[in-house]
Design a protein that fits this description.
This protein has helices spanning 2-8, 10-41, 57-67, 73-79, 93-105, 155-168, 175-206; strands at 47-54, 84-90, 110-116, 129-138, 143-154. It has one domain (2-162): Beta Polymerase, domain 2. The longest helix has 32 residues, at 10-41. The protein is built from seven helices and five strands, in the order H-H-E-H-H-E-H-E-E-E-H-H. It is α+β, with helices and mostly antiparallel strands and 212 residues long. A five-stranded mixed sheet has the order 1-2-5-4-3. Bound molecules: ligand 0O2. Residues 55, 59, 63, 82, 115, 122, 124, 126, 130, 161, 164-165 line the site of ligand 0O2. Residues 52-175 form the RelA/SpoT domain. This is RelA/SpoT domain protein. It comes from [Ruminococcus] lactaris ATCC 29176. Pathway: Purine metabolism; ppGpp biosynthesis; ppGpp from GTP: step 1/2.
Amino acid sequence: EFLDLIQRNKKPFDLLMCYYECAIMEVETKFKVLNQEHSLEYDRNPIESIKTRVKSYESILKKIRKKDIPITMEAIEENIKDIAGVRVICSFQDDIYALEESFLKQDDIELIERKDYIKNPKPSGYRSLHLIVQVPIFLQNTKKFVNVEVQFRTIAMDFWASLEHKMRYKKDIPESQVKFLQEELYDCAEQSAKLDERMQGIRDVIGWNKNE
Ligand code: 0O2
């Protein structure tokens, strides 16, 4: 039915996906600008890397089923807020909150939703700061507001989440090992959070904040 919707509305659907691509470009540029400014003012970059993606059709379909979303363009746009995704990987945990503040201060960004899985990790051990924002994109004759999900992580959080995400899709794990693996992964997440804290502590001692 979803594929049918796409086929019937090929042009409008491609256009919608194009809006998401454009919104990603806007948001990615904002972070690149903040990174550039920061590296001039201080002698380091708070952003290690930025990854972006538009959600795959397969993933959109999965969410439609999970949340029982009606199969119309409007409903998809309204209910799936993470079709455009920007992941900002930072060196230190402090950098995440500093970047979040500078980003949300910008007067064209509207915060829709905020989930702090760093202060409140998920039961799996997952850590990351998630924001859903609306960003305007300027088209030939109109201005359109587009939802973008921004995920902020440290390198350690991203390392854990990337591996855990890949392992999640492995279906041939013996039932007897599932609980053990969940506990192991949780423990790894805790250990990597401690590593983040220690690295941040080292940075604070060095005083690597100001360009002196
Ligand atoms: P993908 O393939 O990354 O796009 P919702 O997004 O509304 O369905 P919820 O609970 O509101 O559900 O979203 P949440 O948990 O705030 O964020 C979902 C996204 O966060 C996931 O995207 C993952 O990218 C990431 N995430 C959340 N929990 C975990 C976890 O335990 N492990 C890992 N590795 N990633 C996690 P999607 O859409 O599930 O998939």
